[in-house]
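Input record (one chain):
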Amino acid sequence: MEISTTAPVGRKATLSGISCGAGAGALWGLVFLAPELARDFSPLELTIGRSVAYGAVSVILIAPYWQSLRQRLKASEWRSLAWLSLAGNILYYILLSTAVQTGGIAMTSLIIGFLPVAVTIMGSREAGAVSLRKLAPSLILCAAGAGCIGWQALALPSSGAVWTQIFGLLSAVGALISWTAYAVGNSRCLSRLDRISAHEWSLLTGMVTGAQSLVLIPITLWLGGMSHDGPAWIRFAVISMGIALLASIGGNALWNRVSRLLPLTLVGQMILFETLFALIYGLIWEGRMPTMLEAAAFGLVVASVLACIAAHGISAAKQSPVPDKTCLDAA
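The corresponding structure, as predicted from the sequence alone:
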């Protein structure tokens, strides 16, 4: 049996994939707000809260068909779930929360804005993928859009110390690397799975993420965390559950759908929606209108996605299948 590593790119699949990508970005953009809404909680605490809630909801939703699902999973797929959960949820959110709290939403969204470039370049190595030469206009527009956001972030006066800003920048870069590894590995994994739906894979990822987050609780206690009053814990619980339901359950389910509908080079461009919505939410949080540079970034992001779609329309017929492999091999 052969399964293509690049998703179908027919008109219907492309439009559906882009719609799911926009939805995932709208939901994922909320994770940038959580560290600001719960600034009195550390990145470790925020990660534990989101991950435990994500895991608990996943277990509840997966329970009715757990026995059937378990029989369809191989040992290699469990290993893939373990590293994908660690890279795409635990490590990523620790680094993202640290970046937002030390460097701000604007700077963090800038760095994460380079995810499409990183993922698309990785995807260009796939068999039958659209060449980098044809993707160049889209990548240039993407980089220009991220550059506008970055210039804006650097131009604004910073209230934090220089070393704090540098630490935030390095944390954002770490989050970029972590999520790039997740996005590429997850897309390759889903393209080879025909026994498990995208939603089931999202719930399995949540279950494993929740289990992994339990290891962080003793570490947080040892560092002196979790010393908050009652109202703070209630606010924290509401935020954690909201992010788990919207970003983790809803966003991941939509993203897994994207990963099956679109080739990896186009999947990378869909991450731009997260940057776009993160910036929108940041502006709402700060209670201001976008600057000229931010408005230009919006336009460049849209143009980047349209250019990437056009490039895939030209090369859709060149997609070719390759022999089936396990998810772990794809990593």
